[in-house]
Amino acid sequence: MRLQQPFSSVTPTVDGSVLLVLARAEAAFSVPEIHQLIGEYSEAGVRKAVYRLAGEGLLSDRRVGRTHVYELNRSHLAVDGVLAIARSFETLVDRLRARLGEFAHPPAYAALFGSAARQDMRTDSDIDLFLVRPRGVAHEDERWSADVARLSADATAWTGNDVRVLAFDEEEIDSRTTRSEPVLAEVARDGVPLYGETSYLRSRSAA
Fold first, then answer.
1. Does residue 148 share a domain with residue 67?
2. 68 alpha-carbon distance from chain centroid
C-alpha cells in the first residue's frame, strides 16, 4: 500500500487521485485546478475521470461564471467509504497509537519514520517504526517482545506492507545525539510521533 495514494489499493486509475484531492479539501475546483493539485496524468485524463465520477453522482458540479467547478458529494451513499480510504494514513497513525497504549511496558517514545512518514512510499515499502524501550525493560523481555510482534503483525494486516521495527534502549538514547546517530536525526526530522513526548528527540539534536 502507498499511504500517500491510498486509492491505488482499490483502483490504479486517475479516478482515485481525483477522489483523494476532493476528499481532502472541502472546496470546489475546476478541472484545471484538480489537475494541478494531482500533479500527474494529463488534463484530458483528469477531465474524463471527473465527468465519470460526476455521472456516478460522487461529484457535484456547479457553474461559477463561465467555469464548472466540482466537489465531493458528501451526501452520496458511497462517500463514507471514499472518506475512509482518503484517511488511511490518519487511521494507521490512530491505530498504532492505540496499540502502543496497550503495551504492558509502553515505550518511552515511538514514531513512524521512513517513506511512510515522508509520504513517498512504493507499494513494496516497509512500515518503519522507531521504538524506545523504557528503562528496566530488557531486550528479551517476553511481554515487550510479544507486544512488538503483535504491533508488527497488526500493521501488516492493516496495510499489506512489511513492518521494520528499530528499537533502542532508553539508556542507549541517553548516550547518543542526532549527530552521532543518523537514524535519530531522521526520526527527529521526519518522524510522526506515536507515543511519548513529541519533544523527546529534540533535546538530543546536534548543537
1. no
2. 32
